[in-house]
Amino acid sequence: MTNSQKLGTDVASTTFAMTFAGGDASEIINATLRYSVFEPFAVTATFSMADGPGVDWVLARNLLREGIVMPSGLGDVKLYPTATGILLELHSPNGRAILEGPVQPLIDFVRDIYCAVPEGQEGQFFSVDAELDMLAHLAGPGTDQGRDAA
């Protein structure tokens, strides 16, 4: 199953089926990738099985771009192209999963997100100052957590 859509320039998303590498092909993992121009360096990936809760991972968008053409990633997330698709390796304190899936939905998604926010123009959509102001606001008035506190 593949469902790719662009929602203006604000968000791109795609959903496609993956399986456990070397496992039972009938155990389908739905992978949903979401991208917002307001977080231009990140892609949120949600992995879920039938009737189960989803597990969210935040991935660097350049990891996806690189991983469709060459092995990419260090640490907890790695992406590898194969002759038949892609392998996605996820590590957490609770275990490890290697998923395999088709490459075309990922290629389409990467194209869409780089059209929405071209490489080198991320700063037009992301402001460190705005993020710090938001955090200071969340800390609330009367705390020493504010940005202007000395």
Task: Kindly describe this structure.
This protein is of the alpha+beta class and 150 residues long. The protein has three helices and eight strands, in the order βββββαβββαα. It has helices at 61-67, 104-116, 128-139; strands spanning 2-7, 11-20, 28-36, 42-49, 55-60, 77-81, 86-92, 95-101. Strands 1, 2, 3, 4, 5, 6, 7 and 8 form an eight-stranded antiparallel β-sheet that branches. The relative contact order is 0.16. The model is unreliable at 1-10 (pLDDT under 50).
Structure in a nutshell:
By secondary structure, the protein is an alpha+beta fold. Helices cover 21% and strands 39% of the residues.
Approximate helicity band: 10-25%
DSSP strand count: 8
Class by SSE composition:
alpha+beta
Average pLDDT works out at 82
Which quaternary structure do these chains form?
A: single chain
User: What string, H for helix and E for strand, traces the elements in order?
Assistant: EEEEEHEEEHH
Question: What's the Cα radius of gyration?
Answer: 18 Å
Kindly estimate the percentage of residues that lie in beta strands according to DSSP: 35-45%
Spans with pLDDT under 50 lasting ≥5 residues?
Answer: 1-10
State the shape.
globular
Query: How far do the termini sit from each other?
Result: 54 Å
Largest sheet: 8 strands, antiparallel
What is the count of DSSP helices, taking H or I runs of 4+ residues? 3
Helix-strand layout with pairing:
Layout: E1 2-7, E2 11-20, E3 28-36, E4 42-49, E5 55-60, H1 61-67, E6 77-81, E7 86-92, E8 95-101, H2 104-116, H3 128-139
Antiparallel strand pairs: 1-2, 2-3, 2-8, 3-4, 4-5, 6-7, 7-8
